[in-house]
Amino acid sequence: MLARIDRWEERRAEPRRRALKGATVRFNNGYGALECVLRNESPTGALLVFGEATAVPTMFELHVAGQAAPRHARVRWRTTTSLGVELG
């Protein structure tokens, strides 16, 4: 018999910390930008919340308020208002 795999089992490499920070997604060589809220983060990933996330490209730079340098981000999953991203 196969073992049941919990659908919500934690698969992240590092645990996330809750956050509430303003952020900007920049793409198209800086000509495109969308504002969002960073809701949780770890050194390798983050949860971003938008009014609508369908226009966000798969890869972009993430500029978080209070952090000096932007981070490269790649979308791992999305809903109509949220993105889970891997940070590089």
Task: Describe the fold and architecture.
Helices cover 0% and strands 53% of the residues. It has 88 residues and is mainly beta. The chain has a single domain (17-87), classed as predicted glycosyltransferase like domains (Thrombin, subunit H, Beta Barrel). The chain has a six-stranded antiparallel beta barrel.
Strand content of the residues, in percent? over 45%
Number of DSSP strand runs: 6
Arithmetic mean of pLDDT: 88
Annotated CATH homologous superfamily: predicted glycosyltransferase like domains
Report the C-alpha radius of gyration, rounded. Answer: 14 Å
Please write the CATH class name: Mainly Beta
Tell me the count of domains.
1
- Report the major sheet: 6 strands, antiparallel, barrel
Q: Tell me roughly what share of residues is in helical segments.
A: under 10%
State the end-to-end CA separation. 39 Å
What CATH architecture do you see? Beta Barrel
Strand pairing plus helix content: what structural class? Answer: mainly beta
CATH topology: Thrombin, subunit H
List the uncertain runs. none
Succession of helices and strands: EEEEEE
Number of helices: 0
Strand order of the largest sheet: 1-2-3-6-5-4
Shape: globular
Helix-strand blueprint:
Elements: E1 17-27, E2 32-42, E3 45-49, E4 59-64, E5 71-78, E6 82-87
Antiparallel strand pairs: 1-2, 1-4, 2-3, 3-6, 4-5, 5-6
Keywords:
mainly beta, PilZ_domain, Thrombin, subunit H, six-stranded antiparallel beta barrel, single chain, 88 residues, PilZ domain-containing protein
Give the structure's gist in a few sentences:
With 88 residues, the chain is mainly beta.
